[in-house]
Amino acid sequence: MRPALLLLPLLASLSALAVTPTAPIPSPALAEQLQRGETTYVLACAMCHGDRLEGVSAPELSGDDFRALYRKLPPRALHDLIRDTMPYDRRGTLSAQEVLDVTAYLLRENGLPLPEGSLTRDTLDQVNEPDPAPTPDQAPAH
């Protein structure tokens, strides 16, 4: 068999990867926040909510139901729930920054919108789902 033929499957898989859409690359500040959020999640949340947010002894923090609920609410709702009730056995032990970081991590893991910089107390109410495309009868007149 010719060596070039052995490379065909590899080239085909690489070209498939090249056209696969990826999530936007976060800003350095947001990337750092997401890393901190993941670390805090693993240390403070995963024991009950699961390593993959699947829920163990507490509700899952991913999936269609989670996304449907938090897509309708501002990120502050999730933030305040975490701040006021988590971790279940140690309420109030997460710092304000850790709560913001975990909130950002959960939003990102569920494909929900985040600000361009980082999630802060001031941006909790500003992060919203993009407006849906207008229907033909709502399209602006030219």
Give your account of this protein's structure.
The protein has 142 residues and is an all-alpha fold. The protein has a single domain (26-129), classed as Cytochrome Bc1 Complex, Chain D, domain 2. The chain is built from six helices and no strands. It has helices spanning 3-19, 28-44, 46-49, 64-72, 75-85, 96-109. The longest helix is centred in the first third of the chain and has 17 residues, at 3-19. The radius of gyration is 20 Å and the shape is globular.
Outline:
The protein contains six helices and no strands. It is an all-alpha fold and 142 residues long.
Could you outline the blueprint of secondary structure elements for this entry?
Layout: H1 3-19, H2 28-44, H3 46-49, H4 64-72, H5 75-85, H6 96-109
Helix pairs in contact: 2-6, 5-6
Structural class: mainly alpha
CATH level-1 class: Mainly Alpha
Overall tally of structural domains: 1
Q: If you average the pLDDT, what whole number results?
A: 82
Number of strands: 0
Q: What would CATH call the homologous superfamily?
A: Cytochrome c-like domain
**Percent range for β-strand residues:** under 5%
Overall 3D shape = globular
Count the helices. How many?
A: 6
Sequence of secondary-structure elements: HHHHHH
What's the helical proportion of residues?
A: 40-55%
The name CATH uses for the topology is Cytochrome Bc1 Complex, Chain D, domain 2
Cα-to-Cα separation, first versus last residue: 62 Å
Q: Uncertain spans, ≥5 residues at pLDDT below 50?
A: 10-21
CATH architecture field: Orthogonal Bundle
Largest sheet: none
CA-based gyration radius? 20 Å
